[in-house]
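Worked example (supplementary).
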Amino acid sequence: VTQTPRVSGSGAHWTVTDPARLATAIRLRAVRMVAPQGFGYLGQALSSAEQVAALFAVMRPGSDRLVCSPGHYVIGIFAAAAELGLMDEDAARTYGQNGSPVEAIGTERSPVADYVCGSLGQGLSAAAGFALSDRLKNKDRRTFAIVSDGELEEGQVWEAAMFAAHHRLAQLTVLLDANNSQVDGPVDTITTIEPIAAKWEAFGWDAVDVDGHDVGVVIKALTDAAHGDKPSVLINRTSTTHGLQCLPPDADGHFIKLPPDLAARAEAELLARLEGRDA
Amino acid sequence: MPEPAALTPLRLPPYPTVLKPYGESLVDLARQRDDIVCLSGDLTRQCEADLFAGAFPERFIGAGMAEANMMGIAGALARDGHIPFVHTFGVFATRRPLDQIINAIAFPRLKVRIMGFMPGVSSPGGPSHQAIDDVALMRALPGMTVLDVADAVEVRQVAAAIVDVDGPVYVRLKRGEIPVMFGDGHKLRLDRADVLTRGGDVALFASGMMLAPAVEAARLLKTAGVSVSLVNVPVIKPLDTATVTDVARAARVVVTAENHSIVGGLGTAVAEVLAEAGLGRPLRRTGLRDTFAEGARTGPYLFGKYGLSTQSVVDAAWTALGRRERPPVAEVALADPGEYSPV
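After joint prediction of all chains, the assembly is encoded as:
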């Protein structure tokens, strides 16, 4: 794990040839990472799989930075990194195990991403700080931040949003995973966060609302976001059960239970899709 | 010195466990007290507040993931005569909204009850989810009462015990299966620590989840000819300084055990009492040794790795006594599902 480069670090190399396939591979690897424990943050990987795949398709290895604000989402990044050869397979297999540095809720010490926050609502400040640093140092690189919709309930996100817009941090792009899921239930039953795009626009951001499971759309939006003179946010509409039909409809998106029989069915379903037996 | 109140009712591990003793007791209390309101920061079921939400939906406030705002709301509710019980994990209850707790709750000495679940390394969720400093943070606030209760018998009594405290209260509560250690007659008292056994060699003070390994350590030490005064300290502030002083004076060495950093919690509080009383007893503090822990699969793994095991407590007493031979070896009692044993 100590050898695993961070995406912006020298020594980071990868190529994405088929982003849609990468998204399916992320789901498969996430299932395999969660299965030994029988439960875990699989829903986060399922809702963000296309966003993570799109990120790796767009990010320039060894240059652009990645911040993962909700540490529970780091599973999807690990899955992508293992699939792309950026992270050792054996290390990925230790995900969440006792004594493993590949912790289930990401931390400061987690490999691959440049910065992972475990305590929710703090990542956008860090991403704004990185983007500000690049401005101060005249560096041509982008900073991408994964943020979840539940995090919008935390005040710090909006402090960071105002700061980033005020400083015109145009190289900062947020992928907001709008999966409408938090611990107590659907986000919209806890706090009304809509209209999300209008809020960010009011704070001085460019905002687009997209289907977060259409990887081509996400890639295009990420690419377009490089050209404005404001920071950008992609509001990716997603589901915590997307791409895995065998999950029960009442699966708890924050912490999905995956007993052995369900894990086996999930693995078979995703393998079939990867091998083209299920278009 | 008062006589030991609860010498015999303690059981041996593995302990039976119960679910949601706090949540049930809060509902019972709220049936009698319509001034109680319940707030939760997106961890309602995890903090057993789902029972309250079901019983009294009109007095339940789902505050979402917005702890700073939740504390500000709770302060205002308390100003208007409500008694808010605020629920989230201990980390999120104390770190992020610290300034709000200080200004909106502690300084005006309002009757807000902050219930911090999943203390110390009982969470395998890594440093962002492990409250290893919550007691230190809350203990530093003027007028804050701080509790770390040990078992289901105490947990069931805690809401009623604190509801009328004249000022803010912070309580640490274990999440999930709660061991039953005391007998039914055990009373949680805010003004007194419980002397559970008497011995002249070691004064052992334990709080919260460390009571279970402390009981085991005391038993093991006794078999090795070392006598222990074991004291359960559910209230860390205001500390029962009379009992701490009396028990420590009667012993050769002092050991503390807490599921928390050794900086700022029970061990520090006991050290302050010993120093101010002029008692020159060697002191060993067991707890996290000024380190963050880590994410893992299980909490018990972390209790072992970070010095919160029965063996750690035994070793602390052993070295404090200056014993050179090998200390007695602790064996972990196997617990079936639904049972609890200390590591």
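Two points are worth noting when inspecting this output. The mean pLDDT of chain B is 95. The CA atoms of residues 127 and 293 of chain B lie 6 Å apart.
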